[in-house]
Amino acid sequence: MEPTVDDGLNGDERNTKTILIVATAISLIIVATSVSVILYTQNLPEPLPVKAVNPQYLGGTRIFLISGETSYGYYPTETNQVTLHETVVQKGDPCFFINIKIRNDYTSASPVDNYSNSSGKVIVHLTALLYDPNGTAINSLDVTLPNHNPIWGYNVPAIGLDSGETSEYQIILKTASRNIDHYNIVLYYVGSIPVP
């Protein structure tokens, strides 16, 4: 039988003491995390205003960009995006958000391709490229939700649009840059069938 140490506390007092120690430790972790976030966000430079995009057809297609609004922020979800076993973004990482509205102007009379689809319906994969005031590309990574495995196609979600349909879509780009002057919407794929 092992010897016991008498700390002078009964069972209830010992449980209360343990709960207080655990609560104190959790409180200290929360305070330390909050201070880190505050210090990080205070060190970010004031962002530049981003130039508005002009309504236009994208990349010689009949996909029409109606509007685009931008904002700076932080990755919104608890789930980390993993690409080929590598974590590329975590909740709280700095990001640039582009909310666009697009319209499919393909019709059954002028479909996107020669496959059996004659309704004008399309599937679109797109992203954006960011630029500073000098026109230099800014390093960023598309982490738009839901993420897709690049083994099965483009690492951005697919948007399906019927002929004449308008859709709103949010592009999320991971970047710590606050020097974004303008952006271009880039079409990876436009077709009547999903990416093979």
Radius of gyration: 25 Å
Mean pLDDT: 80
Structural class: alpha+beta
Helix coverage percent: 10-25%
Count the helices. How many?
1
Tell me the span between the first and last alpha carbons.
69 Å
Report the strand count.
11
Shape designation: elongated
Uncertain segments: 148-152
Element string (H = helix, E = strand):
HEEEEEEEEEEE
Q: How many domains, as an integer?
A: 2
How is the main sheet built? Answer: 5 strands, antiparallel
Q: Report strand order across the widest sheet.
A: 1-2-5-10-8
Binned strand content: 25-35%
Structural features, described:
It is a single chain. With 196 residues, this protein is of the alpha+beta class. It has two domains: 1-43; 56-191, no CATH class. It has one helix and eleven strands; from the N terminus they run αβββββββββββ. The protein has one helix spanning 11-42; strands spanning 56-57, 63-74, 81-83, 86-89, 94-104, 122-131, 137-138, 141-142, 159-161, 166-174, 182-191. The strands form three sheets. The protein has a five-stranded antiparallel β-sheet, with no helix packed on it. Strands 6, 7, 9 and 11 form a four-stranded antiparallel β-sheet that branches. β1 (56-57) and β2 (63-74) form a beta hairpin. The longest helix has 32 residues, at 11-42. The N and C termini lie far apart (69 Å). Mean pLDDT is 80; it is low at 148-152.
Set out the fold topology.
Elements: H1 11-42, E1 56-57, E2 63-74, E3 81-83, E4 86-89, E5 94-104, E6 122-131, E7 137-138, E8 141-142, E9 159-161, E10 166-174, E11 182-191
Antiparallel strand pairs: 1-2, 2-5, 3-4, 5-10, 6-7, 6-9, 6-11, 8-10
